[in-house]
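Note to self: the last two entries modelled the partners one at a time, which told us nothing about the interface. This time every component goes in together.
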Amino acid sequence: MKALHKLIEERVKPNFTGDGKLKRFWVVFDALETFLFTPGHTTAKGVHVRDGIDLKRTMFLVILAMVPALLFGTWNIGHQYYLSLGDITTADPWNAMLLDKLLVGAIKVVPLIVVSYATGLGIEFVIAGINGHAINEGFLVSGMLIPLIMPVDVPLWMVAVATAFAVIIAKEVFGGTGMNILNVALTARAFLFFAYPKQMSGEIWIHDVMASKTGGVLADGYTGATALGHLANTVGQPVGGEVSSGVMSMFADGGMFSLMNCFIGLIPGSVAETSALAALIGAAILIWTGIGSWRIISSFIVGGLVMGVIFNALALNAYMTIGPVHQIVMGGFMFGAVFMATDPVSAAQTSTGKWVYGFLGGFFSIMIRVFNPAYPEGVMMAILFMNVMAPTIDHYVVEANVRRREKRLSAAIA
Amino acid sequence: MSTETATAVAPKKESLFSKKNRRLLTDPLDDSNPITVQVLGICSALAITVQVQQAVIMSLAVLFVMIGGNVIISLMRNIIPDRIRIIVQLVVIASLVIIVDEVLKAYSPDISEKLSVFVGLIITNCIIMGRLEAFALGNKPGPAMLDAVGNAMGYAWILLAVALVREVFGSGAISFPGMGQVKFLPESWFMANGGFYENNNLMILPPMALITVGIIIWIQRSRNQGLIEEN
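The predicted structure of the combined assembly is written out below.
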């Protein structure tokens, strides 16, 4: 390893520095070098307190926290696929056809990840080259999050278009990593949601469900809709009516979307969002390493619970009668709370601001999904909305602090 | 109200296409573009750029109102009392817009229907009012006409560029007044027919018009750094 490093330092690097032949590609070399080796840069002037954790390690730890969700999601794609075909039943042990499930999942997930990274990093390299910036690792997490919040069968070119849109319009326009107003991964998903609604909502959440349906091999009770999609059908229907009670029976104990199934994630949905358990393991890693804000995660969950309790008390339609705990383990709520809302760039920066930001995010997530059946996944909208509001929240928190200190000062003088 | 102020004194007689007057024609296309630089008339740029044919008709309507308004106000500039000049301008613009509206209703009712209120809203298009106030009130009819053509063209090319992007990617088609909408992508490409392609629905929604205009502004300012505001 040392010999390799020495070879690169002495033979390869001079080509890119000073008047070397390849100096135009310095940014590319620099990015790869700092990615593979610890950068040798030190602070030139003054005294700085520095932590060993740099941007690259931060990003890497977030990706590590996503691994449980990713692995579970990969398995679940296969699990849902074979369930929908009737090849296995819900009573089968977890490891029935384990390798087949993982294989089906991997065939769908790996291309998504490759396309997302190739597009996003390609654009980052080109823009950094044009602007003469150093390429940094900001896209590593976004590039991983994007495939995790896609439907299984989304065409790859759509993922590429959405990634390009998100990287250019949501990030590079504002000045690159650390300057974006909106969460990049959610922007990609919102883009797809509005641009290609047919591929992003409805009964598409199980691999090949349309082919199974036309082929007549779809098992009873499987439609390819998510829990939220089913629930959206009950809006406007009388409580206890035929449609509502039919849907609600799926959410009772032993039903397809029982509390336990939703918590573990044995339900159709985006690639890795279904499992609240896997998201909570990720949350534990993020909080333990100090990377994710525990304030945002916990207040987000509390916000969702509060809205759930309010809806329970109102109980105007079948959707509102779903228990608050059940509400927050469905859909992408937990995944959003742990990996999206905590994005350190687009979230609120002040501690008090984080409480407000998280609480309102969770609150609106549940509110949007119940009030507007056209947007079954309210979490995406709620977090993007709170991203936009975050600077305002911070502004008032800082102002309040200034006023408090002014008051204290004038009291001390008087 | 606008960036250019009236050049009131013009003592020497100069030809209509002198260098200074030619700039009246070319400046609004780029350096002082009404949409991308002065940020006027944005509402209509967002609303009627779903199809190229609507954008073409809208541009022609604005061109007509603009030339008419500028020339008429310029001719009357010495007799309009200063206090009621805005009302006079409004009356002139409104009469011209009504003419446009009636002609459209008579000769192409379907496009008139698609443009709906936006023809009437030309009255409130800030570009027209801005040019009357800033230029026509202080200049002779000749230069006033050139200024009108320049600004209307500056408005038109942005509208057409945005409409082209939105229609090609949003509907997979291209349209022009008189030939209707032509879908140039083969039907077998679309997912409904087993293909791989799908039109981008976001392009049809207004936010994408905003983003497209934003991208044009971005390209323009990276080419012409002098336009970048200091903050």
